[in-house]
Amino acid sequence: MTPAAADPEEERRARAALTRVLEPGDERAGRLLRERGAVALLRELTGPRPGPEDPAGPDGRRFEGYRRRASTADPDRDLAAAAAVGARFVCPGSAQWPSQLDDLGDARPVGLWLRGLPDLRTWALRSVAVVGARACTPYGAHMAQALAAGLAERGWVVVSGAAYGIDGAAHRGALAAGGATAAVLACGVDVAYPRGHAGLLGRIAAQGLVIGELPPGGHPTPSRFVQRNRVIAALTRGTVVVEAAHRSGSLVTARRAHGLGRHTMGVPGPATSGLSGGVHELLRGEGVLVTDAAEVVELVGAMGELAPERRGPVLARDLLHPDTARVLDELPVGRPVRAEDLARAVGSGTDEVIGRLYELHSLGFVERQGDDWRLSRQIHGRATRTGGVRRGGH
Known about the structure:
Blueprint: H1 8-18, H2 27-36, H3 38-46, H4 61-70, H5 75-84, E1 87-90, E2 112-115, H6 120-124, E3 127-132, H7 138-153, E4 157-160, H8 166-176, E5 181-185, H9 198-207, E6 209-212, H10 222-235, E7 238-242, H11 249-259, E8 263-267, H12 277-284, E9 288-289, H13 293-300, H14 322-330, E10 337-338, H15 339-346, H16 350-362, E11 366-369, E12 372-375, H17 377-386
Parallel strand pairs: 3-4, 3-7, 4-5, 5-6, 7-8, 8-9
Antiparallel strand pairs: 1-2, 2-6, 10-12, 11-12
C-alpha cells in the first residue's frame, strides 16, 4: 500500500510530531508509517478513535499508547525549541537525509534532529564510527584519540555516541586535529548527556554535528541507547571498536554494521584484558584487525587508498649480497679463521671468499688479523648476546 504524496512541509511537520510519539527503532510503528505516510498516520492518531478492526493488533493497546502521546505532540513548539538552540529537523525526502539510513527498513528513523551547521548527507558519505568501552583504560583512550585524529586528518568524519571513555576520546581526537566529528545521542540534541560532557557536546555542535532521534527535551533510556547504536552503524561506512568487554553495547553497533553490509573493525588489546575480550571475540569472527587510521581507510576508502607496507627497520645486514651474507654467517663467534678454512665451509673458492671478506671489512663487519679473519668487536658483541649471527639480524 503506497501512501498518497503529501506536501513536503506538511510531511516534515508530521514527522517532527511523530518523533515525540514513536519510539526509536519501533519496526511495527515504522511499518504503519511506511504504509500510511506520516501525515495520514498522525491524523489517525489524533482523530476519532478507530473501531475494533484496529490494524495495530487485536486489543489495540500499542495503538492507544501512540494516541496518548500524539495528543500532546506539538511540532511547531518542538521546531521552535530546536531553532532556539541552533538545531533543525531533517527527514526522509529532504535534501540532507542520508539515504544509507534507509537500509534499516522499518527501523529507519522517523527523522533526525541536528544541531550544527554541516550537511549531514555529505558528511555521512565519508564517515567512520569509533566506539568502545565507557570504563576504558589509558591504552584504549590513547588508541581511540590517535585513530580519530588520523581519520580526521585524512578528511573522514568521526562518528560516535558522546559517552564517557572511548566515545569521548574519539570526539576529542577529531576536534584536536581540527577535523569533523558527529555525536549521535539517545536523547534530545538540547540535552547534555552525560552531564560531564556538556562542554564537549558544545564544541562538537560548534565544529561538527550533534544528532538525535528524539525531539528537544527527550531523555535517554537503556532501550534508546541500544537503538541509538543502529543509527551509528547505518550512518557510517564502517565501525571500529576500541576496547569492549563481552557484553559491551559497542559490539551491538559493530554487529549491526556487519549485518548492514558495512565494514566491521577492531583494535586489539592485551590478551589478558577483560576490556579487550569483546574486541578479540569480534576479531575471531566478522571483524578485521586495524591498528591505525591508514588501515581503517584502506578498508572503507576508495580504491588505491592503501595503508603503507609494514616492516621492521632496514639493517646493513639486510643489504648484503646473498653470497656475502653466507660468508658472514659462517664466521665463527669468538675466534679467528683463515680464508681457506672459511672457503671450505662456504663451499666456494678461496679468492672468492677473500673478496667477500674485504667487502665485509669495508662495511665494518669483520677485522683482519694477519692471515686470519674474525668478526668485528661490534658484531661479536651482538652475536654473543643473541647466541650467534643469523641472517636478517644480529
